[in-house]
Amino acid sequence: MAVALQRLRKEYVALQKKPLEGIRAAPLESNILEWHYVMEGARDSPFAGGYYHGTVVFPKEYPFRPPSIMMMTPNGRFETNTRLCLSMSDFHPESWNPMWSVGTILTGLFSFMLEEQPTQGSIVTSPGTKRELALKTLEHNAKNSKFVELFPDLKDMHEARVEAAAAANAGTAGEAVEGAAPSAEREKGGDGLMTVLAILVALLAAGFIVVRQVIV
Q1: Most exposed: 53, 136, 212, 216, by fewest CB within 10 Å?
Q2: What SS3 class is residue 48?
Q3: Is 85 a catalytic residue?
């Protein structure tokens, strides 16, 4: 246990100094054996725009035994809240290399996510489904208290997007109301004009009748 704690503390410091590109990772303050990660979807993939949250749970014997790996955000590639069978996970202790680290594990998971190779815990969906799920990832993640605790910047990003969308919808609704008001005024003005014309026609008709009676 002491070796695992020392190793994981060292790796956390290293990741803070040199973060992984497109990947965030941090252990729970109350349990350094439980790490949480967030992977940003690759740009040229159906996962683009997505933020995928998951866990890597290390055994007390780490680095001599591999961790369990799960993904918690619906993604279209892996089942959620299910241990994934990877060469670097606890499904394959025979292939585990003690030199591998948190960074190695997450980089490998990221690469495997972009492939179509099946494994225990993987699923098959269309690119369209993956793109739809990518748009909903932050909304889903924001409901997880550990995600909010460890990645507050992403929580803030989600809230900012929600507020911007609400403001945009409110602006569209306001423009519709403003557009309807002139139209109503025009209709009202048109009705008034028709009324005046009707009165004039009636007066002319009455005048014509009076003139005709005088002549007769």
Answers
A1: 216
A2: coil
A3: yes
